[in-house]
Amino acid sequence: MQLDAHLVHVLVCPICKGKLEKRLTDGYLVCKADKLAYPVRDGIPIMIVEQAVPLDHSDHQVN
User: For the whole model, what pTM was predicted?
Assistant: First the structure.
């Protein structure tokens, strides 16, 4: 199941309320400001801060 493009534009980071970037290659929604990646499982974005993955500072890749 694919994440709806309209949904990506509506969702915001639960911490800073900033825009999220959809990463097609690894299945995450990324907040560059907070350096966190929220997983998308079976087309459902998991917007729980405790389940977010920290990004590597060097190139913003999921650790």
Answer: 0.81
